[in-house]
Each structure stands twice: as C-alpha cells, then as structure tokens.
C-alpha cells in the first residue's frame, strides 16, 4: 500500500507543558485557553471564513514527543481500567498506535493575531504544548453527535470527587503569578487535580502522598489528604 507524508498546518500552544496532568479527554478542563498557531501559508483569515458559525471544531493532530519513537502496541492498559486490564489498541485512545494520530473536539473561540502569527483560540484542549496539528474541521452536530451511542468501559467522565484546597503560600503565589487572571491559573489547577491526574496504578502505592505537575511555566506541588488534594506551592520554573 502507498505511504503518505503530511505537513502540519500549525502547532498547539497550551497550558500543558508536561504530559503529567494533561486531561485524558477533551473538554474535561475548560480553564486555561489554548491556541493553534498556524504556519504559513495556512495562516490566512480567508481559510477560516464561515467557521464563526460553528461552536466546536475537530483537531486532527500528531502524538509527538517520545510517542513518535515508540512502537505501536496491539494491547494497551487504559487509565479508565486502572492500568490493570488490557484492551486492543483499536478499542482505546492510547497514543501508541500504528500511526500516532489523535482526534479532539474542542470549542473554538475565534482567530487572534500576535507576534506568532494567526492563531485559532480553543477551549477544552487535551493537548501537550507543541503538538503538531494536521487539520481543522468544523464539528457538525447532526452528523457528529450520536445520542444513542454506547461507550463500553468509558461511560461516565472521570472524576475523583476530591476537594481541592490551596495553602496560603500557594494562594499568594498564584495571585502574584496571575495578577490579572488571564491564565485562569487557580481554576486550571483545580480542574486538573479534580480529574486525578495520577496514573491508574497509583492506588497500589497508598504511602505516596506528594506529587508535582507543570502548567504553563509553573511547577505545581500538591499532596493528598483524607478529604482530597491540597496545593502546597506554585513556583515559576527556573
């Protein structure tokens, strides 16, 4: 069969600068806006004419980073099954696929232009910063939404039920880091932690209470308690 080569039309700029903490599906975390920064010659307003009537778009993207170098796996362990049970790769959304291509439906917020060029603003992204985007297509509800579809082992959205608290130090650091609220940093941290970003197998290690993840250019240190998670500190990456 013939092989194909594709050139990305742009790259994603998102709050998720590290794989740990990325939502496992789109639209689970809507705080913290992302952008698809278009490459030339695709960064042209006329290429998006008519998109303003659509609330959501499909992003077709490439799992980059080490996923590109990893071999595909016929069987994988989805986080929704606690990292214990295996299913076929084609019954999952695992990144280790024959072709490392992903698909996400996100809300589109219109175009913006800055020193990076033309960008499509999006909300609800589940994409690592720097993700290459191959194409953008409008989400068409009458064709794309299937109300009576079944979802196998992924019926309900994941939620930890944790209460998310912030130490006084973390609150002060967030206030200093996001004084104008543009990053929605507090809400972003809350939503990410509420999804329990830990790997599914972590309940095997109940003694581990402290964790860290990275959002934008900030390291977020947090710990588990009997009632939920407490953010200890929010520090700028040196």
UniProtKB/TrEMBL annotation:
One MF annotation (Gene Ontology) recorded for this entry: methyltransferase activity
Origin superkingdom: Bacteria
One GO term of the biological process aspect: methylation
Coiled-coil region(s): none
PANTHER family hit by this protein: TRNA (ADENINE(37)-N6)-METHYLTRANSFERASE
InterPro entries in the record: TrmO-like_N (IPR023370), TrmO_C (IPR041369), UPF0066_cons_site (IPR023368), YaeB-like (IPR040372), YaeB-like_sf (IPR036413), YaeB_N_sf (IPR036414)
Similarity comment: Belongs to the tRNA methyltransferase O family.
Protein name: tRNA (N6-threonylcarbamoyladenosine(37)-N6)-methyltransferase TrmO
Domain TsaA-like, first and last residues per copy: 6-148
Keywords: Methyltransferase, S-adenosyl-L-methionine, Transferase
């Amino acid at each position: 069969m013939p092989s194909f080569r594709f050139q990305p039309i742009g790259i994603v700029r998102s709050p998720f600068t590290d794989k740990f903490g990325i939502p496992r599906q789109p639209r689970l975390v809507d705080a913290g806006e992302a952008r698809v920064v278009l490459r030339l010659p695709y960064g042209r307003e006329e290429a998006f004419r008519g998109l303003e009537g659509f609330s959501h778009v499909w992003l077709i993207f490439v799992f980059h980073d080490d996923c590109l170098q990893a071999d595909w796996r016929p069987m994988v362990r989805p986080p929704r099954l606690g990292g214990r049970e295996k299913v076929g790769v084609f019954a999952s959304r695992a990144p280790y696929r024959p072709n490392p291509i992903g698909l996400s439906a996100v809300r589109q917020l219109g175009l913006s232009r800055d020193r990076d060029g033309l960008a499509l603003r999006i909300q609800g992204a589940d994409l690592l910063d720097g993700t290459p985007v191959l194409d953008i297509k409008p989400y068409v509800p009458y064709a794309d939404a299937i109300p009576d579809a079944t979802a196998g082992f992924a019926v309900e959205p994941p939620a930890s039920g944790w209460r998310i608290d912030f130490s006084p130090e973390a609150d002060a650091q967030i206030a200093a880091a996001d004084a104008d609220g543009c990053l929605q940093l507090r809400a972003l941290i809350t939503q990410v932690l509420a999804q329990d970003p830990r790997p599914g197998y972590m309940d095997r290690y109940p003694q581990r209470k402290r964790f860290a993840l990275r959002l934008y250019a900030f390291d977020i240190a947090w710990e588990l308690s009997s009632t939920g998670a407490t953010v200890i500190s929010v520090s700028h990456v040196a």
